[in-house]
């Protein structure tokens, strides 16, 4: 199956189950950015992030026997919730391996969706090894967070919607900024846009210190991050670009953009005031890049994917206290 | 023109200018409410509330001469912003009369949309008299916040969308809870549902102490509020039901629902955690009623219109500090 056919098939299976999230704008944000800014509000997706799309696409692609045996996933929280809810709605058992420093809300929600949560130490332990061992012992199907074609296809449905909404809103040429961890959403959107809206150019956005994809794109070979943790943008901290995702992103993406944690927090405060959206830091880096990297962006329009909103109340209050006004 | 024809005409003029806001759900909210809860996220509308619909409908219905002379409106803030942005996009001069105790954000935004803001004392002065005097002196067309057929028609486009979205989501019978001040949105939605989805029953929702519409519906005659101010729900504090809106709501609405300011604040915190939406108190009363008045609601589904999100950061933080978790 071609990449776009796989995305279309995922879109068919997701119809009626995922939210078609709106593409929102604000004249106040346009003024800051120096161009029209459009925000794809994936924080409004089920489970509070785009990850529900990939989780549903992967679980719904399994055979009945595989679903009955169950699934396993490792995640800092958003993939966890996406897979957990998708599994629950398919009545499939679900184990989720999460870092012990993941936001409390994400751990609690994953459990509330009915998953069995196994915690691990992000710095000392290897989540892939833990996942492989549990999968083998219980006959679970491992659903990788990004290096998995069905997950990439599910995330790619976001790109199909962006292509449609750009036509509706009269957006012709634009950079499409995507918060990027392992690169699954970026790759899915890139494949969808390649087929449906080639004048929209995908670009990964990352936090400072965890800009492995930007450096990999610039150098032409896979670069790793020096640290495993230490950004507010926990949702998009991964060790290196994915083996499946990076070649796609290398072929289709423009240069990566990098913002500071502080700029992500400013974007959170602006999304509160101007868009009435709740974003988490890792879900706000693309908007931060749209607002604060105007000289690195081309065209009269820019689209930023706001990928998630699973933020603890105290951190959100910190953003409002220091950056709202 | 029939009421539904006027709403359809407004919908045609609004196409491509208003946001088709999503109807969002959360299994966590369903559990609290004891039924499926659907939230019509009008806080995501331009200017942060549904009022943009009515403002646009009214300004776009004027003659070119009327638009050139300009418009005037009085409002605690959301109608102000809706009319101001609609006027600006039609290049019409705009004067807005606002109470001096309106939220700072609403006053600042109204000015930023290009309107001339005139402040008055909500308790001592009569905004209608001020509006009439200025309108006469400058040849401005007064756009009333609710007792105005074109405004009601614009707000009614929310009801057209709810009717369509209910079909898409498989919602057959439901109470549709609407945050209610003067009753313009309630009346517009009621007229749209009467024609397009008669199994959806509109019901006004109000804050304690300002439940004029609920008491008027119960008694069969127009009742006034004892006080002119003193609720967190500033957006929906009006002296009495409208002369045009009340007969419509009396004919078409189920009984009114009343919630406390504290319940509205709890709904704000839940919308933050579960829907990733920013609501203001007056925009959260319908969701509060959906969540905390289960015994007064009928059916397996309930739809709550989240009418606005223009809340100052400090009040939002109060909601998170005391009611999130």
Describe the protein in words.
With 325 residues, the first copy, chain A, is an alpha/beta fold. Chain A folds into two domains: 3-50 and 149-323, Rossmann fold (3-Layer(aba) Sandwich), CATH 3.40.50; 52-142, 3-Layer(aba) Sandwich (Rossmann fold), CATH 3.40.50. In chain A, 48% of the residues lie in helices and 15% in strands. The first copy, chain A, contains 14 helices and ten strands. In chain A, strands 1-2-10-7-8-9 form a six-stranded mixed sheet, sandwiched between helices. A four-stranded parallel sheet of chain A has the order 5-4-3-6, sandwiched between helices. The termini of chain A are far apart. The mean pLDDT of chain A is 95. At the A-B interface, α12 and α14 of A face α12 and α14 of B.
Please give a quick description of this structure.
Chain A has about 325 residues and is of the alpha/beta class. Helix content of chain A is about 50%, strand content about 15%. Chain A has a six-stranded mixed beta sheet, with helices on both faces. A four-stranded parallel beta sheet of chain A has the order 5-4-3-6, sandwiched between helices.
Task: Give the tags.
homodimer, 325 residues, alpha/beta, Rossmann fold, 2 domains, six-stranded mixed beta sheet, four-stranded parallel beta sheet, 10 strands
């Amino acid at each position: 199956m071609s990449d776009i056919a796989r995305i279309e098939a995922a879109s068919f299976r997701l119809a009626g189950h995922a939210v078609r999230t709106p593409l929102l704008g604000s004249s106040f944000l346009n003024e800051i950015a120096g161009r029209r800014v459009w925000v794809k509000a994936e924080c409004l997706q089920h489970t509070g992030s785009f990850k529900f799309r990939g989780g549903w696409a992967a679980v719904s692609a399994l055979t009945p026997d595989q679903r009955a045996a169950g699934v396993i996933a490792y995640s800092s929280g958003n993939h966890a919730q996406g897979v957990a809810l998708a599994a629950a709605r398919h009545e499939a058992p679900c184990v989720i391996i999460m870092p012990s420093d993941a936001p409390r809300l994400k751990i609690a929600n994953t459990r509330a969706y009915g998953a069995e949560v196994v915690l691990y130490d992000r710095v000392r332990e290897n989540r892939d090894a833990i996942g492989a061992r549990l999968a083998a012992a219980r006959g679970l199907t491992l659903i990788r967070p990004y290096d998995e074609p069905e997950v990439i296809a599910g995330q790619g449905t976001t790109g199909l919607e962006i292509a449609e909404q750009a036509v509706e809103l009269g957006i012709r040429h634009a950079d499409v900024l995507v918060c990027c961890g392992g690169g699954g959403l970026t790759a899915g959107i890139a494949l969808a846009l390649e087929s449906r809206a080639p004048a929209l150019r995908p670009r990964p956005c990352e936090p400072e210190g965890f800009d492995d994809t930007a450096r990999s794109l610039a150098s032409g070979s896979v670069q790793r991050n020096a640290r495993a943790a230490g950004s507010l943008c926990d949702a998009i901290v991964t060790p290196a670009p994915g083996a499946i995702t990076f070649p796609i992103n290398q072929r289709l993406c423009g240069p990566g953009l990098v913002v500071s944690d502080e700029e992500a927090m400013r974007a959170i405060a602006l999304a509160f005031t101007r868009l009435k959206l709740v974003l988490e830091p890792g879900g706000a880096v693309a908007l931060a890049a749209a607002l604060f990297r105007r000289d690195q962006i081309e065209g009269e329009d820019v689209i930023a994917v706001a990928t998630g909103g699973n933020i603890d109340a105290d951190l959100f209050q910190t953003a409002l206290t220091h950056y709202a006004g």
